[in-house]
């Protein structure tokens, strides 16, 4: 009898009072002209500081299991640039396709605080890997 164990990969980091928690899991394997492995990740950003902050942009560094690095930059997340009052969280889900069955992601958010002060918040590295089949 075979069983498949789906793993969830996590990371957490707090920078300048902003905590970023990540949960990632394998979503799908697609066969196209080039195979692609699709991963879903859910992120919760929590404002543990005393200040109102706004997420302005994202910067991802994606490492594909074949050794290739890919950088992704863009405004906001999932079409939003949320404001977070002290104690508030913002949660979203997104996807990452890889050219190999495993890899990792890490990055940063650019935030804006009082008086237009801008600062980066770390997104700690997390693994991406398909389920393990046990015999």
Give a concise summary.
This protein has 135 residues and is mainly β.
SSE inventory with pairings:
Blueprint: E1 3-5, E2 8-15, E3 18-30, E4 36-47, E5 53-64, E6 69-75, E7 83-84, E8 89-98, E9 103-112, E10 118-128, E11 132-134
Antiparallel strand pairs: 1-11, 2-3, 3-4, 4-8, 5-6, 5-7, 5-9, 9-10
Task: Describe the protein in words.
By secondary structure, the chain is mainly beta. Helix content is 0%, strand content 67%. The chain is built from no helices and 11 strands. Strands 5, 6, 7, 9 and 10 form a 5-stranded antiparallel β-sheet that branches. Strands 2-3-4-8 form a 4-stranded antiparallel β-sheet, with no helix packed on it. The chain is elongated and about 50 Å long. It starts with a strand and ends with a strand.
Question: Which properties best describe this structure?
Answer:
single chain, 135 residues, mainly beta, five-stranded antiparallel beta sheet, four-stranded antiparallel beta sheet, 11 strands, 67% strand
């Amino acid at each position: 009898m075979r069983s498949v164990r789906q793993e969830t990969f996590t990371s957490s980091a707090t920078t300048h009072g902003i905590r970023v928690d990540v949960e990632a899991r394998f979503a799908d394997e697609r066969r196209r002209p080039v195979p692609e492995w699709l991963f879903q990740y859910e992120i919760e950003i929590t404002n543990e500081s005393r200040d109102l902050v706004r997420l302005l942009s994202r910067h991802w560094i994606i490492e594909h299991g074949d050794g290739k690095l890919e950088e992704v930059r863009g405004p906001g997340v999932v079409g939003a640039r949320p404001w977070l009052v002290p104690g508030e969280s913002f949660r979203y889900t997104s996807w990452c396709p890889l050219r190999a069955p495993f890899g990792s992601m890490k990055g940063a958010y650019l935030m804006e605080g009082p008086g237009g002060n801008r600062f980066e918040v770390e997104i700690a590295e997390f693994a991406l890997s398909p389920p393990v089949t046990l015999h």
